[in-house]
Amino acid sequence: MSLTLKKIAALASLLPFFGGLLDGVRVARADNPIVQTIYTADPAPMVYNDRLYVFTGHDEDGSTTYNMRDWHVYSTTDMANWQDHGSPLSLAQFSWANANAWAGQVVARNSKFYWYVPVRHTTGAMAVGVAVSDSITGPYRDALGKPLVENNEIDPTVYIDTDGQAYLYWGNPNLSYVELNSDMTSYSGSIVKVDLTTAGFGTRSGNAQRPTTFEEGPWLYKRNSLYYMIYAADCCSEDIRYSTGPSATGPWTYRGVIMPAQGKSFTNHPGIIDYKGNSYFFYHNGALPGGSGYTRSVSVERFTYNSDGTIPSFNMTTGGPPQLGTLDPFARQEAETIAFSSGLKTEVCSEGGIDVSFIDNGDYIKVKGVAFGNGAKTFTARVASATSGGKIELRLGNQEGNLIGTCTVPGTGGWQTWTTVTCSVSGATGTQDLFFRFTGGSGELFNFNWWQFTA
Ligand SMILES: *[C@@H]1O[C@H](CO)[C@@H](O)[C@H](O)[C@H]1NC(C)=O
Ligand SMILES: *[C@@H]1O[C@H](CO)[C@@H](O)[C@H](O)[C@H]1NC(C)=O
């Protein structure tokens, strides 16, 4: 478990004693970063079957250098509540690699999902490997048993052009690409090194070794026949810049800064995607408690392209994008579908999927934009406790807000010995931010798998 985050949660639970001063902070609860149960980095978004997935790296709690061993995946349908799908890929899948689970990207093809990742070869050089799965949420397995490409550089991005040709770009400090074959695990021709000109990638001042601003983290895509190369630039601290071109191989024209260097992490990493008619920009910073350049968190902003296809410059925010639609409390919802939380972890659940774990007194989950309509009558939760359980308080607006019901969770004899508890609810109407506030004695109280209201 996370000592760092748990300690921070304990401190956060004292905040209500500061009274009115913090009420405003609680009411205006931020939704960035999108994950609070672990530190996440290097977001790679992808839309599949009307859901938006984001694949991330994972900074271990308390890290003071890059300590990254696995990757994680989250998904949403409303840009506010994010479901945790756990870790479907780790270094352990790559028998030939021993460290550095760094920035990757997933693409779909041939009814399969391919996850391109940089890892450290046991020889010591950084290489790009590829893992494959029949399911977007994994598990993924090493597709090749060896590197796909290896030149001691990192940060793969893959784009499948409309003519079917796939390109794999990667690099730091150079930028290279290969043309992938349609099997997505081999390539034709040789590695092409991009000529990083100041016209194509901007001028970096005061660094004769690196005259252009390109640093790392390329992200390639096409929109309205214009190709975009987005990248982390001008290290360090990095900002995010971009270039555009008439083909997937350029030539590239420098277009400027999208996101300035901000937010307590000296690196950043872009991922851009359109979803339900909006455009979203994913990045990372150090915005969680304990956050830094080695304990990063993924966030997202909504933006609008200018009419000429250029991308405006915008800042990091804590508010995040507006919610799309509402969440249905009368359908079964996973406890690990979270807009914001404090003090919690998630784990693999014996009933399938993921459950919320390491619940202590004062921890909470926010679920945003819950459409109660004419009202809810009962609340049911799937829970397990190896100790004597605790309570789930159902509150509206914030974690100290109006109490609409309280469910008592008993001891069940094990952390994965599940039972269903039900309690009555009153006063829940309309669309509300719902907070599960967990209370009980000291230490871990119970685990939480799913929930559902009746109308
Ligand atoms: C990569 O870039 C560095 C710094 O500009 C340069 O010294 C090196 O030769 C490049 N490596 C390759 C493989 O091009
Ligand atoms: C970003 O923040 C800077 C500094 O606070 C401010 O000057 C600028 O107007 C902001 N940009 C946008 C697009 O809000």
From TrEMBL:
Record has Hydrolase as a keyword: yes
Location of the active site: D42, E216
Organism superkingdom:
Eukaryota
Kindly list the biological process annotations in GO that this record carries: carbohydrate metabolic process
Q: GO MF annotations for this entry?
A: carbohydrate binding; hydrolase activity, hydrolyzing O-glycosyl compounds
User: Per the record, where is site Important for catalytic activity, responsible for pKa modulation of the active site Glu and correct orientation of both the proton donor and substrate?
Assistant: D155
Cross-referenced Gene3D superfamilies, in alphabetical order?
A: Galactose-binding domain-like, Glycosyl hydrolase domain, family 43
**Record-annotated CBM6 domain positions:** 331-454
InterPro entries assigned to the protein according to its UniProt record, in alphabetical order:
CBM6, Cellulose-bd_IV, Galactose-bd-like_sf, Glyco_hydro_43, Glyco_hydro_beta-prop_sf, Glycosyl_Hydrlase_43_Enz
The protein's UniProt keywords, in alphabetical order, are: Carbohydrate metabolism, Glycosidase, Hydrolase, Signal
SUPFAM superfamilies to which the protein is assigned, alphabetical: Arabinanase/levansucrase/invertase, Galactose-binding domain-like
Pfam families cross-referenced by the UniProt entry: CBM_6 (PF03422), Glyco_hydro_43 (PF04616)
Give the signal peptide, or none. Answer: 1-30
* Family (UniProt): Belongs to the glycosyl hydrolase 43 family.
Could you tell me what this protein is called?
Answer: CBM6 domain-containing protein
Q: Origin organism of this chain?
A: Marasmius oreades
